[in-house]
Design goal:
- By secondary structure, this protein is α/β, with parallel strands linked by helices.
- The protein has 2 domains: about 160 residues, Phosphoglycerate mutase-like (Rossmann fold, 3-Layer(aba) Sandwich), CATH 3.40.50.1240; about 45 residues, no CATH class.
- About 40% of the residues lie in helices and about 15% in strands.
- It is built from 8 helices and 6 strands; from the N terminus they run E-H-E-H-E-H-H-H-H-E-H-H-E-E.
- The chain has a 6-stranded mixed beta sheet with strand order 3-2-4-1-5-6.
- Helix 2 links the parallel strand 2 and strand 3.
- It is globular and about 50 Å long.
- The two termini are about 30 Å apart.
- About 40% of the residues are buried.
């Protein structure tokens, strides 16, 4: 079977005016992830990202020479938009700037999005499901034997939950566990795909790299 490695982007700039940019830590995480794959003897035949800057920067820092392809289905859900509409445009300051409050509130917001929907949101849960399915087909409808995708936590959560045939709510449980530049391995043959390895960060192991282990 062919291999699909889906890597979460490196650390972005939480709380900044422009979240969609890697921090210095994010660049180093990405460099080390690429180095780890090469040390394993694994180099991709095909490289894909979404259209987000932090995904593109991650792939660039990983240092692979293959041409980059894009599919917007690998983009993260727009959490700013979801929070904005959940709170009718008045997102509390604590949700914007305090990590624990932000992610606790985000989890509740995604569960609401999945069940009742959030009025006015730019994207419905059903649209998110559809576009991530389209992106998976794009990545696996190929003669390539090794496909590398750089995506985001929510998309990875959805791909894992779907591979395990888990309830929708499991997507967010997985999403919150995915570390920056974590490697998630799937194997595929035609339309069939299976989870083989989840949230692996061998490149960030050891006490000398503990400060490089991040989740946002």
């Amino acid at each position: 079977m062919a291999e699909l490695f889906v890597v979460r982007h490196g650390q972005a700039s939480f709380g900044a005016d422009d979240y969609d940019i890697l921090s210095e830590v994010g660049h180093e995480q990405s460099r080390l992830a690429g180095e780890a794959l090469r040390d394993m003897g694994w180099t991709p035949d095909r490289c894909i990202t979404g259209t987000l800057r932090r995904q593109k920067e991650t792939l660039h820092a990983m240092g692979f020479d293959q041409p980059r392809e894009e599919h917007p289905g690998f983009n993260e859900y727009d959490f700013h938009n979801l929070l904005y509409h959940r709170f009718d445009g008045a997102v509390p300051d604590a949700v914007r700037g305090e990590r624990k409050t932000h992610f606790r509130t985000l989890k509740d917001t995604i569960l609401q999005w999945q069940t009742d929907g959030i009025h006015g949101a730019a994207e419905s849960w059903q649209d998110f499901e559809s576009r991530t399915s389209d992106a998976l087909r794009f990545a696996t409808d190929t003669t390539a034997r090794r496909v590398l995708v750089v995506s985001s936590g929510g998309v990875i959560g959805q791909l894992v939950a779907r591979a395990l045939q888990a309830p929708n709510a499991m997507m967010m449980e997985v999403n919150l566990q995915v570390k920056n530049t974590a490697i998630n391995k799937f194997v595929f043959s035609g339309p069939r795909y299976f989870l083989h390895e989840f949230n692996s960060t061998p490149h960030l192991s050891g006490p000398h790299r503990k400060d490089l282990l991040t989740y946002s």
